[in-house]
């Protein structure tokens, strides 16, 4: 991690804040590298982080058996790994409506009709989950009052430029340079 600042003490304080937030959110192992630029005179805060790789997405087909009973016109999902049950239910409720999902017991879910597209339904995406946690950490790290934020993230690099004034083109340029440096590493 590199914290660049014209105010040496301020840079050290921000390094401490970032380390503490990452420890609290258990993000340290998930970040490969990070660059931060703080300038209290210009009132700008730029942060770029490179995410580590995550495991693959989990589809419904990976953790459940799906079958269709033609005589009852009902699709049945038999959940094999109950750790995913809350995600499965939440996604099905959002997709089909809570009133259309019937759960006769802990491991079975029934839906009226032949629902053919369920096999590839993503029920857990570690990459997106990590991204959400990183953005949560960023909003904790950004200085108080810096409400003007430009997200310049790309691929596995999360990057933001923040200020309490209008964002200058030179700050965007610096943020993109920091982001591109992390891409090369």
Structure write-up:
This protein has 185 residues and is α+β, with helices and mostly antiparallel strands. It folds into 2 domains: 2-54 and 126-184, 2-Layer Sandwich (top7, de novo designed protein), CATH 3.30.1710; 58-124. A hairpin with a 2-residue loop joins strand 7 (101-105) and strand 8. The strands form 3 sheets. The chain has a 5-stranded mixed sheet with strand order 1-2-3-11-10, with helices on both faces. A 4-stranded antiparallel sheet has the order 5-6-8-7. The two termini are 13 Å apart. The mean pLDDT is 91. The chain has helices spanning 8-25, 60-63, 85-96, 126-141, 169-184; strands at residues 2-5, 31-39, 44-51, 58-59, 64-69, 74-79, 101-105, 108-112, 122-124, 148-151, 157-163. The chain has 5 helices and 11 strands; from the N terminus they run E-H-E-E-E-H-E-E-H-E-E-E-H-E-E-H. 36% of the residues lie in helices and 32% in strands. Helix 1 (8-25) runs antiparallel to helix 4. The protein is elongated.
- Pick out the low-confidence regions: none
If you compute it from the alpha carbons, what radius of gyration comes out, rounded to the nearest whole angstrom?
22 Å
What is the first-to-last residue Cα distance?
13 Å
SSE pattern: EHEEEHEEHEEEHEEH
The number of helical elements comes to 5
Would you tell me which CATH topology of the largest domain applies?
Answer: top7, de novo designed protein
Mean pLDDT: 91
Which CATH-level-2 architecture of the largest domain? 2-Layer Sandwich
